[in-house]
Amino acid sequence: MAGTALRGRLTWQVAKVAAVAAETASVRTITLDVPDWPGHRAGQHLDIRLTDEDGYVAERSYSIASAPGEPVAITVERLDDGEVSPYLTDELRAGDDLELRGPIGGYFVWEPGDGGPLLLLAGGSGIVPLRSILRHRERTGSTVPVRLLYSSRTLDDVIYRVEFDMAASGVEVVHTLTRHQPPGWAGYARRVDAALLAEVAWPAAGTPLAYVCGPTSFVEAVSQALVQDGYPPQRVKTERFGATGGT
Amino acid sequence: MEAVDGNAIGGLLLEVFGTEMTDAPSVCASCGDGRQVAELVVYLRGPGTVVRCRSCGSVLMVFVTIHDRTCVDLMGLAVLG
Amino acid sequence: MGPISRGFRRRRQDPAGSAGRVPPGQYVTKDFPVLSAGPTPHTALDRWSFSIGRGGQQKTWSWAEFRALPSQDVTVDIHCVTRWSKLDTAWQGVSVDTLLDLAGHDGPFAMAHCDGGYTTNLPVADLTGGKAWVAYAYDGQPLAPEHGGPARLLVPHLYFWKSAKWVRSLELRDTNEPGFWENYGYHIYGDPWREQRYAGD
Protein backbone atom coordinates (compact mmCIF):
# COMPACT_ATOMS: atom_id res chain seq x y z
CA MET A 1 0.00 0.00 0.00
CA ALA A 2 1.41 3.42 -0.90
CA GLY A 3 2.94 5.28 2.08
CA THR A 4 1.17 8.52 1.27
CA ALA A 5 -2.23 6.85 1.39
CA LEU A 6 -1.62 5.98 5.05
CA ARG A 7 -0.32 9.32 6.25
CA GLY A 8 -2.84 11.06 8.46
CA ARG A 9 -4.32 14.44 7.65
CA LEU A 10 -2.31 17.09 9.41
CA THR A 11 -5.41 19.06 10.26
CA TRP A 12 -8.68 18.38 11.91
CA GLN A 13 -11.63 17.18 9.87
CA VAL A 14 -15.29 16.73 10.66
CA ALA A 15 -16.77 13.23 10.67
CA LYS A 16 -20.37 12.13 11.14
CA VAL A 17 -21.35 9.69 13.84
CA ALA A 18 -22.88 6.69 12.10
CA ALA A 19 -23.80 4.66 15.18
CA VAL A 20 -23.27 4.39 18.93
CA ALA A 21 -23.41 0.84 20.31
CA ALA A 22 -23.16 -0.37 23.90
CA GLU A 23 -20.40 -2.81 24.70
CA THR A 24 -20.85 -2.77 28.48
CA ALA A 25 -22.78 -0.57 30.88
CA SER A 26 -20.11 2.11 30.70
CA VAL A 27 -18.49 1.45 27.33
CA ARG A 28 -19.66 2.48 23.86
CA THR A 29 -18.33 1.84 20.38
CA ILE A 30 -18.81 4.85 18.12
CA THR A 31 -18.73 4.14 14.40
CA LEU A 32 -17.81 7.10 12.24
CA ASP A 33 -18.32 8.21 8.68
CA VAL A 34 -15.08 10.04 7.84
CA PRO A 35 -15.18 11.73 4.43
CA ASP A 36 -11.42 11.88 3.78
CA TRP A 37 -10.25 8.85 5.70
CA PRO A 38 -6.90 7.68 4.27
CA GLY A 39 -7.11 4.24 5.86
CA HIS A 40 -5.39 3.20 9.04
CA ARG A 41 -3.09 0.56 10.55
CA ALA A 42 -4.04 -1.83 13.33
CA GLY A 43 -3.10 -0.29 16.68
CA GLN A 44 -3.38 3.36 15.67
CA HIS A 45 -5.50 5.98 17.38
CA LEU A 46 -7.24 9.22 16.55
CA ASP A 47 -7.68 12.48 18.42
CA ILE A 48 -11.15 13.87 19.11
CA ARG A 49 -11.86 17.56 19.64
CA LEU A 50 -15.02 18.94 21.25
CA THR A 51 -15.97 22.62 21.21
CA ASP A 52 -18.68 24.21 23.34
CA GLU A 53 -20.72 27.32 22.55
CA ASP A 54 -18.21 29.56 24.33
CA GLY A 55 -15.36 28.25 22.22
CA TYR A 56 -13.97 26.10 25.03
CA VAL A 57 -12.08 23.15 23.54
CA ALA A 58 -11.36 19.70 24.96
CA GLU A 59 -9.21 17.12 23.17
CA ARG A 60 -8.67 13.43 23.87
CA SER A 61 -7.12 10.43 22.13
CA TYR A 62 -8.94 7.13 21.51
CA SER A 63 -7.64 3.94 19.97
CA ILE A 64 -9.28 2.75 16.76
CA ALA A 65 -11.26 -0.41 17.51
CA SER A 66 -11.83 -1.51 13.94
CA ALA A 67 -9.42 -3.20 11.58
CA PRO A 68 -7.98 -1.57 8.46
CA GLY A 69 -10.67 -1.77 5.82
CA GLU A 70 -13.57 -1.70 8.28
CA PRO A 71 -15.52 1.50 9.02
CA VAL A 72 -13.61 3.66 11.48
CA ALA A 73 -14.76 3.04 15.04
CA ILE A 74 -13.52 4.01 18.48
CA THR A 75 -14.44 2.44 21.80
CA VAL A 76 -14.82 4.80 24.75
CA GLU A 77 -15.15 4.00 28.44
CA ARG A 78 -17.18 6.47 30.48
CA LEU A 79 -15.21 7.77 33.44
CA ASP A 80 -17.45 9.20 36.13
CA ASP A 81 -15.38 12.32 36.64
CA GLY A 82 -14.38 12.61 33.01
CA GLU A 83 -14.96 15.76 31.02
CA VAL A 84 -15.14 14.21 27.56
CA SER A 85 -15.96 10.52 27.96
CA PRO A 86 -19.45 10.99 29.48
CA TYR A 87 -20.34 13.20 26.50
CA LEU A 88 -19.17 10.58 24.01
CA THR A 89 -20.89 7.67 25.73
CA ASP A 90 -24.12 9.31 26.88
CA GLU A 91 -24.87 12.33 24.69
CA LEU A 92 -23.41 11.71 21.23
CA ARG A 93 -25.79 10.17 18.72
CA ALA A 94 -25.96 9.13 15.08
CA GLY A 95 -25.96 12.16 12.81
CA ASP A 96 -23.83 14.34 15.12
CA ASP A 97 -20.62 15.90 13.91
CA LEU A 98 -17.36 14.86 15.56
CA GLU A 99 -14.10 16.62 14.88
CA LEU A 100 -11.10 14.31 14.63
CA ARG A 101 -7.47 14.11 13.59
CA GLY A 102 -5.72 10.97 12.47
CA PRO A 103 -4.88 8.19 12.11
CA ILE A 104 -1.94 8.58 14.47
CA GLY A 105 0.76 6.13 15.44
CA GLY A 106 3.77 4.45 13.88
CA TYR A 107 5.07 2.50 16.86
CA PHE A 108 2.15 0.65 18.44
CA VAL A 109 1.06 -0.94 15.17
CA TRP A 110 1.07 -4.50 13.83
CA GLU A 111 0.96 -5.97 10.37
CA PRO A 112 1.07 -9.66 9.45
CA GLY A 113 4.59 -9.16 8.12
CA ASP A 114 5.72 -8.30 11.66
CA GLY A 115 5.21 -11.95 12.56
CA GLY A 116 4.95 -13.42 16.01
CA PRO A 117 4.01 -15.39 17.97
CA LEU A 118 1.99 -12.48 19.28
CA LEU A 119 1.38 -11.80 22.95
CA LEU A 120 -1.33 -9.21 23.52
CA LEU A 121 -1.78 -7.90 27.07
CA ALA A 122 -4.71 -5.66 27.89
CA GLY A 123 -5.64 -3.85 31.09
CA GLY A 124 -9.23 -2.61 30.98
CA SER A 125 -9.87 -0.35 27.97
CA GLY A 126 -6.33 -1.16 26.79
CA ILE A 127 -8.06 -3.95 24.88
CA VAL A 128 -9.18 -1.53 22.16
CA PRO A 129 -6.07 -1.32 19.95
CA LEU A 130 -5.40 -5.01 20.52
CA ARG A 131 -8.86 -5.83 19.22
CA SER A 132 -7.99 -3.93 16.03
CA ILE A 133 -4.85 -6.05 15.74
CA LEU A 134 -6.83 -9.27 16.22
CA ARG A 135 -9.43 -8.30 13.64
CA HIS A 136 -6.70 -7.31 11.18
CA ARG A 137 -5.00 -10.66 11.71
CA GLU A 138 -8.23 -12.47 10.95
CA ARG A 139 -9.18 -10.34 7.93
CA THR A 140 -5.78 -10.88 6.34
CA GLY A 141 -5.85 -14.63 6.93
CA SER A 142 -2.67 -14.48 9.00
CA THR A 143 -1.85 -17.69 10.89
CA VAL A 144 0.50 -16.05 13.40
CA PRO A 145 -0.30 -17.66 16.78
CA VAL A 146 -1.75 -15.24 19.33
CA ARG A 147 -2.29 -15.28 23.06
CA LEU A 148 -4.41 -12.52 24.52
CA LEU A 149 -4.25 -11.93 28.26
CA TYR A 150 -7.06 -9.55 29.20
CA SER A 151 -7.44 -8.11 32.70
CA SER A 152 -10.84 -6.71 33.69
CA ARG A 153 -12.51 -5.86 37.00
CA THR A 154 -15.54 -8.12 36.51
CA LEU A 155 -17.03 -10.24 33.76
CA ASP A 156 -19.53 -7.47 33.02
CA ASP A 157 -16.61 -5.14 32.31
CA VAL A 158 -15.15 -7.36 29.59
CA ILE A 159 -15.39 -5.45 26.31
CA TYR A 160 -16.05 -7.41 23.07
CA ARG A 161 -16.75 -10.44 25.22
CA VAL A 162 -18.85 -12.36 22.74
CA GLU A 163 -16.30 -11.71 20.00
CA PHE A 164 -13.52 -13.12 22.17
CA ASP A 165 -15.61 -16.10 23.23
CA MET A 166 -15.76 -17.04 19.55
CA ALA A 167 -12.04 -16.40 19.01
CA ALA A 168 -10.62 -17.35 15.65
CA SER A 169 -8.35 -20.36 15.29
CA GLY A 170 -4.83 -19.80 16.50
CA VAL A 171 -6.03 -17.27 19.08
CA GLU A 172 -6.02 -18.18 22.78
CA VAL A 173 -7.86 -15.78 25.06
CA VAL A 174 -7.09 -15.79 28.77
CA HIS A 175 -9.14 -13.59 31.08
CA THR A 176 -8.36 -12.49 34.57
CA LEU A 177 -11.05 -10.83 36.68
CA THR A 178 -9.50 -8.80 39.43
CA ARG A 179 -12.38 -7.51 41.55
CA HIS A 180 -15.23 -9.99 41.36
CA GLN A 181 -15.74 -13.35 39.69
CA PRO A 182 -19.01 -15.12 38.82
CA PRO A 183 -19.88 -18.32 40.67
CA GLY A 184 -17.97 -21.25 39.29
CA TRP A 185 -15.30 -19.06 37.69
CA ALA A 186 -12.30 -21.26 36.99
CA GLY A 187 -10.09 -18.61 35.47
CA TYR A 188 -7.55 -16.24 36.95
CA ALA A 189 -8.85 -13.98 39.68
CA ARG A 190 -6.09 -11.50 40.38
CA ARG A 191 -4.05 -8.70 38.86
CA VAL A 192 -1.46 -9.80 36.35
CA ASP A 193 1.77 -10.59 38.18
CA ALA A 194 5.01 -12.28 37.22
CA ALA A 195 3.70 -15.75 38.12
CA LEU A 196 0.55 -15.34 36.04
CA LEU A 197 2.58 -14.06 33.11
CA ALA A 198 4.99 -16.95 33.36
CA GLU A 199 2.05 -19.31 32.90
CA VAL A 200 0.52 -17.47 29.97
CA ALA A 201 3.25 -15.72 28.02
CA TRP A 202 5.04 -17.32 25.08
CA PRO A 203 8.51 -18.43 26.11
CA ALA A 204 11.07 -15.75 25.29
CA ALA A 205 13.12 -18.23 23.28
CA GLY A 206 10.57 -18.25 20.48
CA THR A 207 11.13 -14.54 19.63
CA PRO A 208 7.57 -13.47 20.48
CA LEU A 209 6.31 -9.96 19.91
CA ALA A 210 4.36 -8.38 22.79
CA TYR A 211 1.91 -5.47 22.81
CA VAL A 212 0.96 -4.15 26.25
CA CYS A 213 -1.80 -1.56 26.61
CA GLY A 214 -3.77 -0.18 29.53
CA PRO A 215 -3.33 2.00 32.60
CA THR A 216 0.24 3.09 33.21
CA SER A 217 0.71 0.96 36.33
CA PHE A 218 -0.49 -2.13 34.46
CA VAL A 219 1.83 -1.48 31.52
CA GLU A 220 4.83 -0.83 33.77
CA ALA A 221 4.33 -4.01 35.81
CA VAL A 222 3.68 -6.25 32.82
CA SER A 223 6.40 -4.92 30.52
CA GLN A 224 9.00 -5.10 33.27
CA ALA A 225 8.04 -8.69 34.05
CA LEU A 226 8.31 -9.65 30.38
CA VAL A 227 11.76 -8.13 30.06
CA GLN A 228 12.80 -9.93 33.23
CA ASP A 229 11.55 -13.12 31.62
CA GLY A 230 13.91 -12.59 28.73
CA TYR A 231 11.81 -10.67 26.22
CA PRO A 232 14.13 -8.19 24.45
CA PRO A 233 12.86 -4.66 25.24
CA GLN A 234 12.46 -3.89 21.54
CA ARG A 235 10.04 -6.85 21.26
CA VAL A 236 7.76 -5.36 23.95
CA LYS A 237 5.65 -2.48 22.65
CA THR A 238 3.82 -0.37 25.19
CA GLU A 239 0.95 2.09 25.21
CA ARG A 240 0.05 3.74 28.52
CA PHE A 241 -3.38 5.24 29.03
CA GLY A 242 -2.76 6.91 32.41
CA ALA A 243 -4.25 5.91 35.73
CA THR A 244 -7.84 5.89 34.61
CA GLY A 245 -7.39 4.43 31.17
CA GLY A 246 -8.28 7.54 29.22
CA THR A 247 -10.99 10.07 30.09
CA MET B 1 -2.79 12.34 36.48
CA GLU B 2 -0.23 9.59 36.07
CA ALA B 3 2.38 9.82 33.40
CA VAL B 4 1.60 8.37 30.00
CA ASP B 5 3.98 7.85 27.09
CA GLY B 6 4.88 9.32 23.72
CA ASN B 7 1.98 7.57 22.01
CA ALA B 8 -0.26 10.18 23.65
CA ILE B 9 1.45 13.09 21.89
CA GLY B 10 1.39 11.51 18.45
CA GLY B 11 -1.22 13.98 17.21
CA LEU B 12 0.58 16.96 18.71
CA LEU B 13 3.85 15.88 17.07
CA LEU B 14 2.07 15.24 13.77
CA GLU B 15 0.77 18.78 13.80
CA VAL B 16 4.03 20.39 14.95
CA PHE B 17 6.42 18.43 12.72
CA GLY B 18 4.14 17.54 9.83
CA THR B 19 4.93 13.84 10.05
CA GLU B 20 4.38 10.74 12.19
CA MET B 21 6.90 10.86 15.05
CA THR B 22 5.95 8.16 17.59
CA ASP B 23 8.42 5.70 16.07
CA ALA B 24 11.13 8.34 15.57
CA PRO B 25 14.39 7.79 17.45
CA SER B 26 15.32 10.17 20.27
CA VAL B 27 18.47 10.61 22.33
CA CYS B 28 18.55 12.35 25.71
CA ALA B 29 21.10 15.19 25.80
CA SER B 30 21.73 14.59 29.51
CA CYS B 31 22.35 10.85 29.73
CA GLY B 32 22.45 9.61 26.13
CA ASP B 33 19.52 7.20 26.56
CA GLY B 34 18.11 6.37 23.13
CA ARG B 35 14.59 5.14 22.47
CA GLN B 36 11.63 5.76 20.23
CA VAL B 37 9.47 8.76 21.07
CA ALA B 38 6.53 6.44 21.94
CA GLU B 39 8.48 5.15 24.94
CA LEU B 40 9.29 8.54 26.50
CA VAL B 41 7.54 9.61 29.70
CA VAL B 42 4.80 12.17 29.10
CA TYR B 43 2.97 14.40 31.59
CA LEU B 44 -0.29 15.75 30.15
CA ARG B 45 -3.11 18.02 31.31
CA GLY B 46 -0.95 20.46 33.18
CA PRO B 47 -0.30 24.02 32.05
CA GLY B 48 1.78 22.34 29.34
CA THR B 49 2.90 18.92 28.15
CA VAL B 50 6.27 17.79 29.51
CA VAL B 51 8.24 14.90 27.98
CA ARG B 52 10.99 13.32 30.08
CA CYS B 53 13.75 10.78 29.61
CA ARG B 54 12.68 7.33 30.82
CA SER B 55 16.19 6.68 32.07
CA CYS B 56 17.31 9.85 33.90
CA GLY B 57 14.11 11.91 34.14
CA SER B 58 15.53 15.01 32.45
CA VAL B 59 13.10 17.22 30.60
CA LEU B 60 13.42 16.51 26.87
CA MET B 61 10.52 18.45 25.36
CA VAL B 62 7.96 20.98 26.57
CA PHE B 63 4.84 21.91 24.58
CA VAL B 64 2.68 24.83 25.61
CA THR B 65 -0.38 25.79 23.57
CA ILE B 66 -1.62 29.31 24.16
CA HIS B 67 -4.36 30.90 22.08
CA ASP B 68 -3.99 28.28 19.29
CA ARG B 69 -0.21 28.66 19.02
CA THR B 70 2.01 25.88 20.23
CA CYS B 71 5.45 26.70 21.62
CA VAL B 72 7.87 23.78 21.50
CA ASP B 73 11.09 23.48 23.49
CA LEU B 74 13.30 20.57 22.42
CA MET B 75 16.46 21.59 24.20
CA GLY B 76 16.65 18.41 26.29
CA LEU B 77 17.14 16.25 23.20
CA ALA B 78 20.42 15.53 21.46
CA VAL B 79 18.62 13.73 18.64
CA LEU B 80 15.05 13.65 17.42
CA GLY B 81 14.07 11.77 14.27
CA MET C 1 -12.82 27.39 15.68
CA GLY C 2 -14.17 23.93 14.93
CA PRO C 3 -17.85 23.04 14.70
CA ILE C 4 -19.79 23.29 17.94
CA SER C 5 -20.25 19.84 19.43
CA ARG C 6 -23.99 19.52 19.95
CA GLY C 7 -24.81 19.17 23.63
CA PHE C 8 -21.23 19.47 24.89
CA ARG C 9 -20.75 21.74 27.86
CA ARG C 10 -17.58 22.26 29.77
CA ARG C 11 -17.76 21.53 33.46
CA ARG C 12 -19.27 24.54 35.14
CA GLN C 13 -20.51 23.45 38.52
CA ASP C 14 -21.30 26.57 40.45
CA PRO C 15 -22.78 25.26 43.66
CA ALA C 16 -24.95 27.48 45.78
CA GLY C 17 -22.82 29.59 48.06
CA SER C 18 -20.02 29.97 45.56
CA ALA C 19 -21.29 33.20 44.05
CA GLY C 20 -18.47 35.70 43.85
CA ARG C 21 -15.89 33.11 44.83
CA VAL C 22 -15.20 31.66 41.40
CA PRO C 23 -12.90 33.68 39.12
CA PRO C 24 -13.77 34.07 35.41
CA GLY C 25 -13.39 30.94 33.30
CA GLN C 26 -13.16 28.56 36.24
CA TYR C 27 -15.36 25.66 37.36
CA VAL C 28 -15.65 24.28 40.87
CA THR C 29 -14.48 20.75 41.56
CA LYS C 30 -14.88 18.53 44.60
CA ASP C 31 -11.80 16.55 43.54
CA PHE C 32 -8.25 17.62 44.09
CA PRO C 33 -6.64 17.04 40.68
CA VAL C 34 -2.98 16.11 40.59
CA LEU C 35 -1.13 17.82 37.77
CA SER C 36 2.60 17.52 37.42
CA ALA C 37 5.46 18.24 35.09
CA GLY C 38 7.41 15.29 36.39
CA PRO C 39 7.57 12.36 38.79
CA THR C 40 6.64 12.84 42.43
CA PRO C 41 9.77 13.40 44.50
CA HIS C 42 10.00 11.56 47.80
CA THR C 43 12.30 13.48 50.08
CA ALA C 44 13.02 11.90 53.44
CA LEU C 45 12.28 14.25 56.31
CA ASP C 46 15.74 13.79 57.79
CA ARG C 47 17.19 15.13 54.55
CA TRP C 48 14.61 17.90 54.04
CA SER C 49 15.45 21.53 54.69
CA PHE C 50 13.93 24.86 53.79
CA SER C 51 15.91 28.03 53.09
CA ILE C 52 15.22 31.69 52.50
CA GLY C 53 17.79 34.23 51.42
CA ARG C 54 20.12 35.14 48.66
CA GLY C 55 23.58 33.92 47.79
CA GLY C 56 25.58 33.10 50.88
CA GLN C 57 23.04 34.68 53.21
CA GLN C 58 20.53 31.92 53.75
CA LYS C 59 18.45 31.07 56.76
CA THR C 60 17.87 27.32 56.77
CA TRP C 61 15.60 25.15 58.85
CA SER C 62 15.62 21.38 59.22
CA TRP C 63 12.27 19.59 59.33
CA ALA C 64 12.28 19.50 63.14
CA GLU C 65 13.19 23.18 63.33
CA PHE C 66 10.57 24.09 60.74
CA ARG C 67 7.83 22.21 62.54
CA ALA C 68 8.74 24.01 65.76
CA LEU C 69 7.93 27.38 64.19
CA PRO C 70 4.56 29.00 64.89
CA SER C 71 2.03 27.71 62.36
CA GLN C 72 -1.42 28.71 61.20
CA ASP C 73 -4.52 26.84 60.14
CA VAL C 74 -6.03 28.49 57.08
CA THR C 75 -9.00 27.72 54.88
CA VAL C 76 -8.74 29.16 51.40
CA ASP C 77 -10.07 28.83 47.86
CA ILE C 78 -7.56 27.73 45.23
CA HIS C 79 -7.64 28.30 41.47
CA CYS C 80 -5.66 26.35 38.89
CA VAL C 81 -4.88 27.85 35.49
CA THR C 82 -6.24 24.65 33.92
CA ARG C 83 -9.63 26.01 35.02
CA TRP C 84 -10.56 24.09 38.13
CA SER C 85 -11.19 25.85 41.42
CA LYS C 86 -11.57 24.20 44.79
CA LEU C 87 -13.29 26.03 47.61
CA ASP C 88 -12.66 25.88 51.34
CA THR C 89 -9.41 23.94 51.30
CA ALA C 90 -7.88 23.57 54.75
CA TRP C 91 -4.14 23.82 55.27
CA GLN C 92 -1.64 24.08 58.07
CA GLY C 93 1.68 25.79 57.56
CA VAL C 94 4.13 28.48 58.48
CA SER C 95 3.36 31.97 57.25
CA VAL C 96 5.99 33.30 54.86
CA ASP C 97 5.86 36.51 56.94
CA THR C 98 7.26 34.49 59.85
CA LEU C 99 9.99 33.01 57.66
CA LEU C 100 11.00 36.35 56.17
CA ASP C 101 11.08 38.00 59.60
CA LEU C 102 13.41 35.30 60.88
CA ALA C 103 15.55 35.41 57.75
CA GLY C 104 15.75 39.18 57.49
CA HIS C 105 13.62 40.46 54.61
CA ASP C 106 15.71 41.27 51.58
CA GLY C 107 14.85 41.76 47.93
CA PRO C 108 11.69 42.71 46.08
CA PHE C 109 11.30 39.39 44.22
CA ALA C 110 11.56 35.70 44.96
CA MET C 111 12.09 32.48 43.02
CA ALA C 112 10.78 29.27 44.56
CA HIS C 113 13.05 26.27 44.03
CA CYS C 114 11.68 22.74 44.42
CA ASP C 115 12.69 19.10 44.50
CA GLY C 116 12.46 17.87 40.92
CA GLY C 117 13.67 21.19 39.53
CA TYR C 118 10.43 23.16 39.29
CA THR C 119 10.63 26.92 39.77
CA THR C 120 8.17 29.78 39.91
CA ASN C 121 8.65 33.49 40.56
CA LEU C 122 6.68 35.88 42.76
CA PRO C 123 6.95 39.43 44.07
CA VAL C 124 7.80 39.38 47.79
CA ALA C 125 4.84 41.71 48.28
CA ASP C 126 2.61 38.76 47.31
CA LEU C 127 4.31 36.52 49.86
CA THR C 128 3.79 38.88 52.80
CA GLY C 129 0.89 40.45 54.64
CA GLY C 130 -0.68 37.12 55.51
CA LYS C 131 -1.04 36.02 51.88
CA ALA C 132 1.32 33.03 51.71
CA TRP C 133 2.46 29.98 53.66
CA VAL C 134 4.77 27.04 53.43
CA ALA C 135 2.16 24.36 54.07
CA TYR C 136 2.85 20.86 55.38
CA ALA C 137 -0.64 19.60 56.14
CA TYR C 138 -3.83 19.47 54.10
CA ASP C 139 -7.26 18.61 55.47
CA GLY C 140 -5.80 17.70 58.82
CA GLN C 141 -3.29 15.19 57.43
CA PRO C 142 0.38 15.47 56.54
CA LEU C 143 0.59 16.76 52.99
CA ALA C 144 0.75 13.79 50.59
CA PRO C 145 3.69 13.65 48.18
CA GLU C 146 1.42 13.84 45.12
CA HIS C 147 0.06 17.16 46.43
CA GLY C 148 3.49 18.57 47.19
CA GLY C 149 4.50 16.97 50.48
CA PRO C 150 6.55 17.24 52.67
CA ALA C 151 5.80 20.96 52.10
CA ARG C 152 4.60 23.25 49.38
CA LEU C 153 4.19 26.93 48.87
CA LEU C 154 0.62 28.11 49.29
CA VAL C 155 -0.28 31.44 47.65
CA PRO C 156 -4.02 31.20 47.08
CA HIS C 157 -4.63 34.67 45.65
CA LEU C 158 -2.63 33.73 42.55
CA TYR C 159 -3.11 30.84 40.10
CA PHE C 160 -2.07 27.62 41.74
CA TRP C 161 1.01 27.04 39.56
CA LYS C 162 2.58 29.68 41.81
CA SER C 163 1.91 27.46 44.86
CA ALA C 164 4.97 25.40 44.13
CA LYS C 165 4.93 21.78 45.22
CA TRP C 166 7.95 20.23 46.98
CA VAL C 167 9.33 23.70 47.74
CA ARG C 168 12.79 23.74 49.27
CA SER C 169 13.81 27.39 49.12
CA LEU C 170 12.77 30.94 48.34
CA GLU C 171 15.61 32.76 46.65
CA LEU C 172 15.32 36.50 47.11
CA ARG C 173 16.26 38.60 44.07
CA ASP C 174 16.35 42.13 42.72
CA THR C 175 14.70 41.24 39.42
CA ASN C 176 11.55 39.32 38.52
CA GLU C 177 12.86 36.45 36.36
CA PRO C 178 10.36 33.97 34.95
CA GLY C 179 10.16 30.50 36.42
CA PHE C 180 9.34 27.22 34.63
CA TRP C 181 5.86 27.91 33.24
CA GLU C 182 6.37 31.66 33.03
CA ASN C 183 9.24 30.94 30.64
CA TYR C 184 6.84 29.15 28.30
CA GLY C 185 4.33 31.95 28.09
CA TYR C 186 2.33 31.83 31.29
CA HIS C 187 1.68 35.17 32.97
CA ILE C 188 4.52 36.58 35.06
CA TYR C 189 2.05 37.49 37.87
CA GLY C 190 -1.03 35.27 37.49
CA ASP C 191 -4.04 36.98 39.12
CA PRO C 192 -7.07 34.71 38.57
CA TRP C 193 -9.50 37.62 39.15
CA ARG C 194 -8.05 39.49 36.17
CA GLU C 195 -7.74 36.13 34.34
CA GLN C 196 -4.00 36.58 33.87
CA ARG C 197 -3.29 33.10 32.51
CA TYR C 198 -0.85 33.93 29.73
CA ALA C 199 1.76 36.63 29.09
CA GLY C 200 0.01 39.64 27.65
CA ASP C 201 -3.36 38.91 29.26
Describe this structure in words.
Chain A has 247 residues and is α/β, with parallel strands linked by helices. Chain A is built from six helices and eleven strands. Chain A has two domains: 102 residues, Elongation Factor Tu (Ef-tu), domain 3 (Beta Barrel), CATH 2.40.30; 129 residues, Nucleotide-binding domain of ferredoxin-NADP reductase (FNR) module (Rossmann fold, 3-Layer(aba) Sandwich). Chain B has 81 residues and is mostly beta strands. Chain B is 10% helix and 41% strand. Chain C is mainly beta and 201 residues long. Chain C has a single domain, classed as Oxidoreductase, molybdopterin-binding domain (Sulfite Oxidase, Chain A, domain 2, Alpha-Beta Complex). Classes of the chains: A alpha/beta (247), B mainly beta (81), C mainly beta (201).
Which helices and strands appear, and what pairs or packs with what?
The complex is a heterotrimer of chains A (247), B (81) and C (201).
Chain A: H1 3-6, E1 13-24, E2 27-33, E3 45-51, E4 57-63, E5 73-77, H2 85-91, E6 97-104, E7 118-123, H3 127-139, E8 146-152, H4 161-165, E9 171-177, H5 194-200, E10 209-214, H6 216-228, E11 236-240
Chain B: E1 4-5, H1 10-17, E2 25-28, E3 34-36, E4 41-43, E5 49-52, E6 59-66, E7 69-73, E8 77-80
Antiparallel strand pairs in B: 1-4, 2-3, 2-8, 4-5, 5-6, 6-7
Chain C: E1 27-28, E2 49-54, E3 57-62, H1 63-67, E4 72-79, E5 84-95, H2 96-103, E6 109-114, E7 119-123, E8 133-138, E9 141-142, E10 152-154, E11 167-173, H3 180-183
Parallel strand pairs in C: 1-5, 2-11
Antiparallel strand pairs in C: 2-3, 4-5, 5-8, 6-7, 6-11, 8-9, 8-10
